[in-house]
Task: structure prediction
Amino acid sequence: MSDKRDVELVSIVKPRRHKLSATDVVNQALATDATVELIASGDANSLPQLAADGPASRMDKRLLDLDTIISEVAEMIATTRDHYKCIMFTDLAGSTDYKREMGHTKGYMRNRLFCDICEQAIEHHGGTVVKRLGDGVMSVFEHAIDAVLAALLIKRSIYGGKKKLKKLVGRSLDYRIGITCGYVKELPGKSQDFIGHAMDKGARIESQALPNQVLIDEIVYGLIHTKIRDYSEDILIGSPRNMVLKGVGISTLYEVSPKDMGLESRLAARFLRLFSG
Result:
């Protein structure tokens, strides 16, 4: 009888494992998705139970005080001043496909690397990070030239570290950047936020950019073209292109790039000619 009990006890005692290092933990997290593995193995009982522990309470039939909510929102909008800002949107391309192929953990790491690079460049040139927008960053600047310099610092930093970054995440960090200027309303609250036509336009400009391209509109160009003379040996500006921006209308866009890297539009055209004829 005692032998049988000993066998049963031995069978349920798990062997002691060595403590994993932080590097091992990261590698294991990147190598597998624990939730998917648990479900696939049939051990879903170990997942957190999200059902209510007790019976659900009765539905509250009282309504929210909409008059108070409407009054507070109206007062906030009415008392919010307009500010003239330069707005920059950055976006990491191909995030959904990347996460589907490489997993969400590695997708988060790729996104975090890109956003951290953007934020450091923005702060380096005196900009303010307003918020992260999923796969990118929205920021504001007091001066248009600072926004352009921040965008080019992002471009040069990613290009300069492309081998290191590709080795870490498995593919290149392709991105798009759009910059405009205009009047916006700064919304009061715990976190800074802005609304206005310029915000919508900045997002539309970014969406029109080629991979790794920085686009500015005619407003930014008008504010920086005299300043560019001071950076003429470093900054290249492409030819103007009239484009229709959804919900905005026609806008004249220019590509800006470090002179030693060339313009993405010319590189794309050269690549197209090479493989089309």
Notes: Residues 104-124 form the longest helix (21 residues).
